[in-house]
Amino acid sequence: MESPPREVAVVEDDPSMRKSVARLLNAHGFATEVYASAEAFLSCASQNRFGCIVLDIHLSGMSGIELWHRLKDTDFRIKVIFITALDDGVLEAEAMKAGCVAYLHKPFPADALIGAVNRALGA
Amino acid sequence: MVRACRVPPRQTVIGFLCLLFVLIIPTVETCSAEIIGRVPRVLILYPYDERLPATTFAGETARARLLESTEGLVDLFSEFLDLSRFPEKVHIDRMARYLGEKYQERRPDVVIAIGEEATSFIIKYRNAIAPEAKIVFSGFSGADAAKMKLPDDVFGAFSDYDIAKTLAMARRLQPDARELFIIGGSAPFDRSWIATARKDLAGAAGGLKLTYFEDLTIDEFVDRASRVPAGSIILVLTILSDRSGRNFIPRDALERIAGKANAPVYGPYATYIGHGAVGGNTVTFESMGAAVAELAVAAIAGKPIASVKVPQTYVADARQLKRWGLPESALPSGTVQSFKEKSLWEQYWPAIVGIVAALALQAVIITGLLVERHRRRGAEQESRLRLLELVHLNQSATAGALSASIAHELSQPLGAIRSNVETAQALLWNMNPNIDLVQQILADIRDDDQRASDIIVRLRGLLKKRSEIDWQEFDLNDVISSAIQILHAEAEQKRVVVSSKQPARKLPVRADKVHLQQVILNLATNAIDAMVDAATTHRELVFQTALMEESKVVLSISDTGRGIPRDQLDSVFNAFYTTKPAGTGLGLSIARAIIETYGGKIWADNRAEGGAVFRFVLPLAQHG
C-alpha cells in the first residue's frame, strides 16, 4: 500500500490565519500549499498530492462545507480538518458525522492541529 | 360787591316800591298766563360792570341753570348797571329810561336782580322797565332785605355772610393767635361791611386784640399788613375803593395785601381764594346764581315761590395753608379746599393702576414663561436623556446581534497569533533556529494584535454609553467605513456582498459619531436581515453618499431584499413597528430621532429593481 502524501493543503481566506497555519505545519515538518478560496483549490491541477486539507468553513465565495461535498463526490479521498471562527454546534456535529478528521475552533492549540494532521496522514 | 350797596334815597324808593307792589300784584298773577305759548323772557340785572367776578359768577351760573332747566327755551337778556363807578342819580335815571325804552317791545317776564343795588333799581323802575315781570334776587342777606322793605311779590335767595364764622375758622387754624386785624375800604359798601364786622365780631373775638385798618390807601393797607405781629389773624372784608378814591376789584386789593402780609389773611368771599386768602366762611356766587335761577324757573312756570337761604360754605386755599404752616386737620368739617396738591396716587391713580396692572400682568407672564421655559428645558433634557438611554440600549442590542460575527472577526487574529506563537516556540527549540523567520512571525503577531485591538476599539465604540451628546465634526465616509468593518463578518456569514460608493471629497458633518454609526448599523443590519430570503448570489448591500444642494449630504443604504409594502413606507419609523419575529421595533424610530436631533431627515423607499433603500440627509458642517 502506497503511503499517503505528507503534503497538506491549507484553504483559508484570512491571509494572516492562512500564513500562520502554514508556518505551524511547516515547523512540524509538513509541506503545505495555501489557497485563499475553495475555487482556487479546485482549480489546482494536482490535488492528489495532498494527504489532507485544512479547510476554513466560512470562505468568501464557495464555503468550506460546499468544497468538502464537491471533493466527496470525486474519487479523490482527501482527509479534511475543518477550522472555523464560528461556534455552530449543528454544523460541527454534521461535519464530524460525515467523517472529518477534526473540527477546530480558532484559536486552536498547535497540538490539536498537528495531532489532527498526523491522524489524517495516518502517522 | 353783591352783598349790598345802599342807594341813598332808599326809604323814599322803598315807599314807592311798596305802592308799586300793590299795583303790580294783579299784573304778576296774569303774567304766568300770558307767557304760556311763547318763550319766556328773563332779564338778568348786574349792579356793576362785567369785570366784577362775584356778580358775573352768580349771573352766569343763573344763566346756565335757566338754559338747562328750560332746555334752552328762554330768551335771556343781561344788563350791567355799572353803579359802582356811576352811583349818581342822573346815571341811575338815565339807565332806567334807557332800559324802559329798550324793553318796550319785549317786556321781561322775570327779572333776576343780582345784589342789593340791582334789586333796589328794578323795584324802583319796575313799572318803566318790566311792569308785568316777577322779580327775584340774590346777593344780600335777609336782614338787608328786611331793611329794604321789599314788595311782597319780590322773593330772593338770601346770602347771609357770617364774618364770625370766618373768624372761627381762622381761630381753629391759629389757636395761638393773639391779635386780629380787620381791613375794609372806603366805599359805602366797604364801610357797611366794617360796621357789620364791628357788630358781629364784638363777642366772637374773645381774647383777641382787635385792630381795624380803615380809611387808608392801598399802599398803607399793604404796609400795615406787612408789619402785623407774626401769628396774628388778618380779616380782609372788601376794598372797592380806598381813601384816595381809587377803585378796586376787592380780590385784587386783597391779593396785594396778602402778598406782603406778615400773617395769614382771611376773607368772606370765595373769589378771594386763589388770590392770597387762606379761607373763610362764604356763600359762593355759584350757589347764589343756582338758587336764584331755581326761583326764576318756578316763576316762569307760574308756581308759587318763596325766599330761600343760599347755603354757606367754608372755603380754603391749600397753598396758603402750606405757606403759613396751618394744619389741614384744623379746617372745619366740609371745607372745600382749592389748589390742593393731589398726591401722586390722586393725580395719576388710573395711570398707576394701569401701570401696576400691566407690570403685574407682565410679571405673571414672565414668570409663567420662565416656569414654562424651565419645564421645557427640563423636559428637553429629560427627553434627551431618554433618547441617549434608548440609543445605548439599541447599541447594546446591535452589539448582541453582531456578537457572533464580532467573535468570528476577533477569532481570526487571535487564531493567527496563537499559531504563530506556537510556531515560534517550535522554531526556538531547534539547535539553530531560523531567527529571520522568528522575526517575521513576531512582526505578524504584532500586526494581528493590532487588528484584534482595532476590533475591540470598534466594539467599545459600539457599546459606548453617552450621558450627553459628544458633538464632533467628522467625515461621514469614515463612519460608514467603520460600520462596514463592524458588519463585515455578519455580512460575510450571511453571504451579503457589501460595497460602498463615496465621493472623493470629505463630507464633514457635526454630530455624535457613535450615534450616526448606530443609525448606519441599524439600517444596514435591517438590510442584511431583509435579504435572508434572497438568493445567495444576489445579496447586495450598497452604501452610497452624495452631496445634495451643496450644503447637505445624503447617505443611501440599499439592499436587494423583499422591499417594504408601499402603504407601510411611512410607518416603518414608528415606534414598535417591526417585521422581525424578535425585533423590538425601536431601531428605526431611534434612527429617526437621532437624525432629527442633528437637523436631518430620514425616509424609506423601494428600489425599482427590487429591494429597499433608506436615505438620510444631514447638513454639511461646512461648505466646500
Please tell me about this protein's structure.
The complex is a heterodimer of chains A (123) and B (624). Chain A has helices at 15-27, 38-42, 64-72, 89-97, 110-120, and strands spanning 7-11, 31-35, 50-56, 79-84, 102-105. Chain A is α/β, with parallel strands linked by helices and 123 residues long. Chain A has one domain (7-120): Response regulator (Rossmann fold, 3-Layer(aba) Sandwich). The longest helix of chain A is centred in the first third of the chain and has 13 residues, at 15-27. Chain A is globular and about 30 Å long. Chain A starts with 6 loop residues before the first strand and ends with a helix. By secondary structure, chain B is of the alpha/beta class. Chain B folds into 3 domains: 10-158, Rossmann fold; 163-282 and 311-338, Rossmann fold, CATH 3.40.50; 467-624, Histidine kinase-like ATPase, C-terminal domain (Heat Shock Protein 90). In chain B, 49% of the residues lie in helices and 16% in strands. Chain B starts with 9 loop residues before the first helix and ends in a 5-residue tail after the last strand. Mean pLDDT of chain B is 86; it is low at 1-34. The chains are: A alpha/beta (123), B alpha/beta (624). The A-B interface holds A 14, 16-17, 19-21, 23-24, 26-28, 58, 60, 83, 85-87, 105-110, 113 and B 404, 407-409, 411-420, 422-423, 426-427, 437, 441, 444, 447-448, 451, 492-493. Chain B: It catalyses: ATP + protein L-histidine = ADP + protein N-phospho-L-histidine.
